[in-house]
Write a structure and sequence with these properties.
14% strand; alpha/beta; Aspartate Aminotransferase, domain 2; binds pyridoxal-5'-phosphate; Aspartate Aminotransferase, domain 1; 7-stranded mixed beta sheet; single chain; 13 strands; 40% helix
Length: 381
């Protein structure tokens, strides 16, 4: 059987062959442990890691020593949130986040709240999935330690007004963390322009390898490590550094950043074409997300008068994700679409198309054709 057309690049991306190529020497030749300070094997590996750190700093802003390598964005988010909360000395501690965050932010926040370590405010969003900075302002308390707000939403592509939120947080001396996992590699991201204190990213969302990410932490932001051990990464993330993966992360980010604008407008044009083909020709289709503030590659649509499971089941030739089963273990309707005012039924009858570097115009046309045919079959029933 031919493989379905892949349009699930927000879930993960293939590793770019140029990234694989860049990683190879770090697997074979420079296999040393960067923590081995007594011989050239270690020195060579350490040089690769420091080169990657410097490259991240030049592409995303910040200083090289402010990047902490982690196993991905889930770990980076956990380190940012728990690390800040556990680093607080005060008795009570308040954390603010948002209803449309990824589970890798919501769940650590909820665990801290459940364990009585923080009081948690989960802010609502508007129908486009955006937060109103004034809501953040109103939610701040004297004991607020941290605001965690994603830059780009993984399901809808909606971008939050991070710089405005950052200004509010800075005025009140509250730390701001952003899960920028879907933004890095797709749109310009600079830690200084955003005005954040902590930022999470993950390589496998931008054509790098799985199992590597980073937390950028502004110098001086107090953080308690999740792991105790050899004291790597300034004691903030013990464990032997994954040198080949770190080199892959660096190369993948360099490649994305070198072609950010071109690729961004190419994907936006393809996304707009897919949108036109589906939205304009089929009745009962509505778009989810912000029409202006959004990623170039993501299209999320609700098909009003069909049943979600039937819709996805009738599209085996398309690898896309739906407004339910965003992880297969969890078939509940998308918490993101619910927070945007969709009903459970509508959320489940929603599809996310996320395009990527290998996506072609022919694939977009074919995808639209497949969806149209599937809907025609479902409506006939
Ligand atoms: C994919 C994703 C994550 C999880 O990243 P991992 O590196 O797979 O742990 C977190 N947040 C967002 C917004 C994501 O899209």
């Amino acid at each position: 059987m031919a493989m379905p057309i892949y349009m699930d690049y927000n879930a993960t991306t293939p590793v770019d062959p140029r990234v694989v190529e860049a990683m190879r020497p770090a697997f074979e030749e420079h296999f040393g442990n960067p923590a081995s300070r007594t011989h050239p094997y270690g020195w060579a590996a350490a040089r690769l890691v420091e080169k990657a750190r410097a490259s991240l700093a030049s592409l995303l802003g910040g200083n090289p020593d402010e990047f902490i390598f982690t196993a991905g964005a889930t770990e980076a988010n956990n380190l940012a949130i728990k690390g800040v909360v556990w680093g607080r000395t005060g008795k009570t501690c308040h954390v603010i986040t948002c209803a449309t965050e990824h589970k890798a932010v919501l769940d650590p926040c909820r665990r801290l709240a459940r364990d009585g370590e923080v009081e948690l405010t989960i802010l609502p969003v508007d129908r486009c999935g955006r937060i109103d900075p004034q809501q953040v302002h109103k939610a701040l308390r004297p004991d607020t330690a941290l605001v965690s707000l994603m830059l780009a939403n993984n399901e809808t592509g909606t971008l939050h007004p991070l710089p405005e939120v950052a200004q509010i947080c800075r005025q009140r001396g509250v730390l701001l963390h952003t899960d920028a996992t879907q933004a890095v590699g797709k749109i310009p991201v600079n830690v200084h322009e955003l005005g954040v204190d902590l930022l999470s990213l993950s390589a496998h969302k931008f054509y790098g390898p799985k199992g590597i990410g980073a937390l950028w932490r502004r110098r001086g932001v107090p953080l308690v490590p999740l792991l105790d051990g050899g004291g790597h990464e300034q004691g903030l993330r013990s464990g032997t550094l994954a040198v080949p993966l770190i080199v892959g992360l660096q190369r993948a980010l360099e490649l994305c950043c070198s072609d950010l604008e071109c690729e961004g407008s190419r994907l936006a044009a393809l996304r707009d074409e897919l949108r036109r083909l589906l939205l304009n020709s089929i009745p009962g289709v509505e778009e989810n997300g912000d029409p202006q503030h959004r990623l170039p590659n993501t299209l999320n649509l609700t098909f009003r008068d069909v049943e979600g499971n039937a819709l996805l089941a009738s599209l085996p030739a398309l690898a896309i994700s739906s407004g339910s089963a965003c992880t297969s273990a969890d078939p509940a309707p998308s918490h993101v679409l619910l927070a945007m005012g969709r009903t459970s039924r509508e959320a489940q009858a929603s599809l996310r198309f996320s395009l990527g570097r290998p996506t072609t115009a022919a694939e977009v046309e074919k995808a639209a054709e497949l969806v149209r045919a599937a809907l025609a079959r479902l409506h006939r029933r």
